Amino acid sequence: MKVEFLDIVLGYFVLVIQVAVAVIAVVKYQAYKSTPLKYISIILIYTAVNEIIGSLNIYSNNNNVLIYNIYNVIYFLFFYNAFWYSITKEKYRNWIVVCVGIFVLASVVNPFFQNFITESQLLAYVVGACALLFCIILYYIEILSTSKVLLIRRDLLFWISVGLLLFYVGYIPIKLTRVFFEYQDNVYLALRIVHRILILILNGCFIIGFLWMKKKLPR
Questions:
Q1: Rounded distance, CA 70 to CA 116, Å?
Q2: Which long-range contacts (CB under 8 A, 24 or more apart) does 113-118 make?
Q3: Using CA atoms, how far apart are residues 49 and 68, in angstroms rounded to an integer?
Q4: 187 CB-contact burial (10 Å; exposed 0-12 / middle 13-18 / buried 19+)
Q5: For labeling, which of 2, 48, 153, 199 is most exposed (least CB within 10 Å)?
Q6: Residue 122's closest CA among 173, 83, 46?
Q7: What is the pLDDT of residues 84-110, one digit of tens each?
Q8: Is 195 within 8 Å of 171 (Cβ atoms)?
Q9: Contacts of 42 by beta carbon, 8 Å cutoff, 6+ apart
Q10: What Å distances lie between residue 25 and 4, 28, 63, 207, 212, CA to CA?
Q11: Is the full-model pTM beyond 0.90?
Q12: Longest dimension (CA), the chain
């Protein structure tokens, strides 16, 4: 019962922090409107709305897989685009393009093995998450070799990347193994609690980024 209560409480916290980060993103828009993250407020609003709809579907026993499958494609493509525009080395940019191609291919192939409407697209998600982690690593390699590293604490993309890195490093193993524990309530519930904690960490990093960032002028 305690574990179930914790799961419910964390579920509400997730909804609150996702709405909060979307509001903060809108309020701080002027500070990052000239950066590759200029549309992140739309993505975060979409995330909050998607999570609310998903939560309502869970409690009404409706299938909510479809909205998350669509969301994941949009979410990954947005961040690939953001890192591509933020990175200046042509070689790294080309690698990101390859990552996008692999992800798109996985997204096209996956529905042949799992129903896109009723089943979570495991292959597409894992490939997309791994590709995003690779983009983050490329971003870190580049900033560590330039003067950008001196101002990194005030860089919104840095905090966004930290949140994404921590979330996906922690969640990919859960995503891969959760299906095996679907009918073991205690284990499945524990994995969902960890998932929600990772979401809180992710959004906490986003909030730090929005609050600490320094306004950037157009290039």
A1: 9
A2: 116/66, 116/69, 117/63, 117/65, 117/66, 118/63, 118/65, 118/66
A3: 11
A4: middle
A5: 2
A6: 173
A7: 999 999 999 999 999 999 999 999 999
A8: yes
A9: none
A10: 32, 5, 30, 8, 12
A11: yes
A12: 55
The pLDDT of residue 184: 62
- DSSP characters over the chain: -HHHHHHHHHHHHHHHHHHHHHHHHHHTHHHHTTSTTTTHHHHHHHHHHHHHHHHHHHHTT---HHHHHHHHHHHHHHHHHHHHHH---HHHHHHHHHHHHHHHHHHHHGGGTS-TTTS--HHHHHHHHHHHHHHHHHHHHHHHTSGGGGGGGG-HHHHHHHHHHHHHHHHHHHHHHGGGGTT-HHHHHHHHHHHHHHHHHHHHHHHHHHHH-------
> What's the pLDDT tens digit per position in 130-140?
999 999 999 99
What does each C-alpha distance from 54 to 38, 57, 69, 196 come to in angstroms?
Answer: 26, 5, 12, 14
Q: Which residue has the tokens 């490329």?
A: 138
Give me the helix-helix angle, 2-27 and 40-59, nearest 10°. Answer: 150
Residue 128 has which token pair?
């997309």
Torsion of CA 39, 165, 210, 38, to 10 degrees: -10
d(CA 203, CA 14): 9
Q: Average pLDDT, stretch 5-24?
A: 92
Handedness of CA 142, 152, 25, 120 (dihedral sign): positive
